[in-house]
Amino acid sequence: MSRVTIKEIARRCGVSPGAVSYALNNRPGVSEATRARVLRVAAEMEWVPNRAARQLSAARSETFGLILARSAQTLVEEPYFMGFVGGVESVLAQQSYALALQVVANLGEEIATYRKWVAEGRVDGVIVVDPRVSDPRIPVLRKLGLPAVLVGDPALADRMPCVWIDSTAAMDAALDHVASLGHRVIARVAGPPEFGDVWIRDQAYDAAAQCLGLTAWTQHTDYSAVHGADATREVLEVVPRPTAILYDNDLMAVAGLAVVQALDLHVPDDVTLVAWDDSPLCRITHPRLTALSNNVVGYGAEVTRRLLDVLAGATPQAHLYATPTLRIRGSSGPPPRG
Amino acid sequence: MSRVTIKEIARRCGVSPGAVSYALNNRPGVSEATRARVLRVAAEMEWVPNRAARQLSAARSETFGLILARSAQTLVEEPYFMGFVGGVESVLAQQSYALALQVVANLGEEIATYRKWVAEGRVDGVIVVDPRVSDPRIPVLRKLGLPAVLVGDPALADRMPCVWIDSTAAMDAALDHVASLGHRVIARVAGPPEFGDVWIRDQAYDAAAQCLGLTAWTQHTDYSAVHGADATREVLEVVPRPTAILYDNDLMAVAGLAVVQALDLHVPDDVTLVAWDDSPLCRITHPRLTALSNNVVGYGAEVTRRLLDVLAGATPQAHLYATPTLRIRGSSGPPPRG
DNA sequence: CTGATAAGCCGAACCGGTTAAGTTACGACG
DNA sequence: CGTCGTAACTTAACCGGTTCGGCTTATCAG
Questions:
Q1: Domains of chain B by start residue, with CATH
Q2: pTM for the whole thing?
Q3: Is the shortest CB-to-strand distance from B29 to strand D under 7 Å?
């Protein structure tokens, strides 16, 4: 229990607590000599500012909030998040900011939590993930005046500051890839349509397919492995059978691969598979999965930096973080002849 | 910004702020009539206690800490954690406690963070995960007087309160399973030996193998998919070749399966595979993986409840949470003849 | 030598709660 | 009828910082 307070430091330095505060916060009001002395004594005594006290008087909590509106069980299946959170932390740690991470069941609870946080003065800003089409959280946050950065496309952000990755360009790259291999009939196993990111990809997929003259359709799922497997089975029963399947995440792609192999079909000879969200999973299957790769950790870090910018008074902007890179691996090849 | 303070409530009720505090905290000192009136007005005004103020005066932060000493990249690969964190949250939310989650690079930083947290008065207690053999964090936490619950075996806890799952019984079940199928030569692809849990399993594995008269050895890895694959390759080159392989996590098991198949061996006809940490991953491969399953979400919840007990003054104890269940699936079968 | 100016520091209020100590009113009891 | 005890509040100190008005003292122009 370090009971070292600035009062104690003040006593030792023979100055008032106020002066110590100025010195420690690098503000004018004390001479350089005094400042140096205070800093030395504070370091000697291993003084650490009391968060609650600082928060109470300064009306800043030095904490960012991040809410995941998913069931705990879903989170087990989504390696994506931990990487993102890790990226967020890496930036926050440098600023001695803290992260309040909350897991709730749905958007309603998420909104209620924002309200509570504002009332409690718990967070200075929030990172909003999994944007929906016409996301109800955006007007609420705006009205609450809670600084926020949306992790998603500007088309979903309604002028709220956001950081996004170019899903449209990525989708183009993926379809170009399969089309150039000669595929003409393709299917896509997508996430839930209410997710903004899925919606963006839906648009991009349809547009690119039409542009390339492909026969292409989409099967929506809940992102889970089980539904990914089911969707793969359904998709493979359609006539004409698709010769390439795109997946909206890695887990469904891996599940799909197992289904294809269980049906005694071969990858890539009979079907080409392409995954979104590259992860170690895509590299441990046999064959390895072609995937759209992006740096989740870096993404989390970038979003956090932008939120710090917003706090510092930057004008709201949309920032493109990156375009996913298509990593071509063993799961893609030309379509079977015939 | 709900600027509703107890002072405001006091004014409206015509009593002093102190009385309001007594009323709101269900403490003696006010009449039932007044208490009811205060509660009504507080609800009407949507009063929410200011965390910082309460923390400052009550010297409780109503926050638990959880530090993950792993690289952000590792976390991407470990779905385990999000489920655990989700379980923790589910209990904390009911108590309106908060969780401070920090991701750091190593144990040294983790210890430094505990020190900082104590100095800042940031947390009331911590959940300690990934216990090591002779874990350096335990004496530090003890000296700091920071309440903690260790997630791991009592043998690793040095009398610190802990919640554990019975790895020894689980290992026995796994070895019984493969032995009863007729396997006599088995290998184990394990995690890093400095991890306490791995160490416990090492002991259990050796003991059970000797007891059953099996030829058994262990290959240690860093838990990653890549090393899991490498270890599988090495293990399969040993003469006599093992007919069954046990893995310390699901990711390595999936990677191992791909390696086995790439070598044109068949599961389970040529090799039986058994995974630890059952997850959707184990159910989407072909064949599905036999695995030791335990409820990670419930585990997190239980640990959190125990920490609340410790805060409430319970005597330090070791609590057995569960014994993992062996889920037998398509990846296990009798050894090949000859 | 005087008066203006500003740097440097002090004291105190304040943030929004909690809580020990003090006050008042009322009923019971000798 | 006076005294004492107690329920019901009020007051004020306190937690550990931040911040602001004002007081000293040194500096310098006039």
A1: 1-47 (1.10.260.40), 167-293 (3.40.50.2300)
A2: 0.88
A3: yes
